[in-house]
Recover the amino acids of this structure.
């Protein structure tokens, strides 16, 4: 056994630790208000949070317009951006909806939600309609449990129960300064192709279990 983790690993900052769990799909959160209209926000702080009812957990800073709109309506949409929506991902994480109508500025086409009064993004890989079932506050954020009302994927976007490479989802790698002088960071994303997806059956590792466990998990 080594004396210190750095004998095996390179130490990184708490901020760089997020790179360990990428690529991931960063959501575009759509919210809406009868008075203000729809708004967009880039969100990395979301996760699957349960199956019955099926729900997602979304963290929203109290500083954002999105927080105000979700508090008002109790609804939101999680949109999975396509690679063609990288500008939307960038702008929606930088500029407040209090200063500009991001959907109009980006010329994004929308589709009315079926069971929520929040529009879907027509060019997204998919959209999930959510209604707030519960929430809690921690520090300067509210965490919303959004029950899934309806979910949609781009036409032909599923391969069985898997997202098809043809769905063109934006698998976000993160941001960093490039070699050239630039006012903003470069955004990086992975190009997922059919060739890059590997299939792994679990039989081998299950067969390595002790006999009593192997029988239990082979059924």
């Amino acid at each position: 056994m080594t004396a210190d983790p750095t004998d095996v690993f390179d130490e990184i900052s708490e901020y760089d630790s997020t790179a360990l769990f990428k690529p991931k799909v960063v959501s575009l959160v759509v919210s809406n208000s009868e008075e203000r209209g729809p708004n967009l926000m880039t969100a990395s702080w979301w996760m699957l949070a349960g199956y019955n009812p099926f729900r997602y957990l979304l963290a929203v800073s109290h500083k954002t317009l999105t927080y105000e709109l979700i508090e008002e309506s109790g609804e939101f949409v999680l949109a999975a951006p396509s690679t063609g929506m990288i500008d939307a991902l960038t702008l929606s994480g930088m500029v407040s909806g209090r200063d500009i109508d991001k959907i109009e500025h980006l010329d994004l086409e929308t589709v009315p939600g079926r069971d929520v009064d929040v529009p879907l993004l027509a060019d997204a890989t998919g959209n999930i309609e959510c209604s707030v079932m519960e929430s809690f506050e921690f520090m300067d954020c509210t965490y919303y449990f959004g029950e899934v009302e309806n979910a949609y994927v781009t036409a032909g976007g599923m391969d069985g129960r898997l997202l098809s490479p043809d769905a063109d989802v934006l698998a976000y790698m993160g941001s960093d300064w490039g070699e050239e002088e630039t006012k903003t960071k470069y955004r990086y994303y992975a190009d997922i192709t059919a060739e890059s997806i590997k299939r792994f059956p679990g039989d081998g590792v299950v067969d390595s279990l002790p006999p009593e466990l192997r029988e239990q998990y082979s059924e």
